[in-house]
Design brief:
about 280 residues; TIM Barrel; about 45% helix; 2 domains; alpha/beta; about 10% strand
Length: about 280
């Protein structure tokens, strides 16, 4: 448990620029991102679950155990703060989620991401009752008061045309979660500037959104989010999915007997060597 790392992590949500949080899925990806100079690292539950051959967001005991194991590895390898995606608490009640939070804090984590989507939810499926989710948030803060609790609200996640969805429930849930002790609010699925601006104005805490590249590759996206008042921008599962895509693309290039040594699709420019990757584990 690092009080200084916790202090730094909290402060990063109140800096002049939004915290750009890349999400790793194992020790190597986290260490490489930290070495690239990112101020803090997050984990992605999709990446951790998929690496085990498990689906994301199902409250799997195997994914829970792997998440704790990864947190412990990161605690001994990273000098920067890191935060852990714990889905909705892996199906546990307040006591179990509090115990999980304590384990993660003891491992060295500075924060957790706790979502209110029910296991297996897709689209317009129901969310955990706000009062019930507030109990989980309180349990985290009681058992690990130094952790930054990023309360994720799934009202706009995996739905059609998120920009047209009303914000009443989102703002009401944010109020409930902050009253329970949450330090920040995360609303994945929102990309429209007007919606984000309304959330920033209505949430008296740091707002976190997902980075969405868009058709132009996302040029200027971070600057625009900063102008809107967003305080944290996460990559979510983007890096993990990109790595899968790069691996398949390169394998297809090998099969076609034409690996590009440059920076194009399937290219090798900038790829770390064997020794560099070995050093990530030292």
């Amino acid at each position: 448990m690092s009080t200084e790392r916790n202090r730094v992590f909290h402060a990063l949500h109140h800096a002049d620029e939004p915290l750009l949080l890349p999400n790793a899925w194992d020790a190597a990806s986290a260490t490489a991102l930290a070495a690239a100079g990112f101020a803090a690292i997050g984990t992605t539950s999709l990446g951790v679950a998929a690496a085990l051959g498990e689906p994301d967001g199902q409250g799997s005991a195997r994914v829970r155990d792997a998440t704790v194991a990864l947190a412990r590895r990161l605690g001994s390898r990273l000098t920067c703060p890191y935060t852990v995606d714990i889905e909705g608490g892996f199906g546990g009640g307040p006591q179990e989620v509090g115990t999980l939070a304590r384990e993660l804090a003891e491992a060295g984590a500075s924060g957790v991401n706790l979502e209110d989507g029910l296991p297996g939810r897709t689209g317009d499926g129901p969310l955990v009752a706000a009062a019930r989710q507030a109990e989980l948030i309180r349990a985290v803060k009681e058992c690990a008061p130094g952790l930054y609790v990023n309360a994720r609200i799934d009202t706009h996640w995996l739905v059609d045309d998120a920009a047209t969805r009303p914000l009443d429930e989102t703002l009401a849930r944010a109020e409930t979660y902050l009253a329970a002790g949450a330090d920040g609010i995360f609303v994945p699925g929102v990309a429209d500037g007007r919606v984000i601006g309304t959330l920033v104005a209505g949430v008296p805490a740091p707002l976190n959104v997902l980075y969405t590249p868009g058709p132009d590759g996302g040029r200027g996206r971070l600057a625009r989010l900063a102008e809107l008042g967003v305080r944290r921008v996460s990559t979510g599962s983007l890096l993990f999915r990109s790595a899968l895509h790069a691996a398949v693309t390169l394998a297809e290039s090998v099969r076609a007997d034409g690996v590009d040594g440059g920076g194009g699709p399937g290219g090798l420019a900038g790829m770390p060597g064997y020794g560099e990757v070995q050093r990530l584990a030292e």
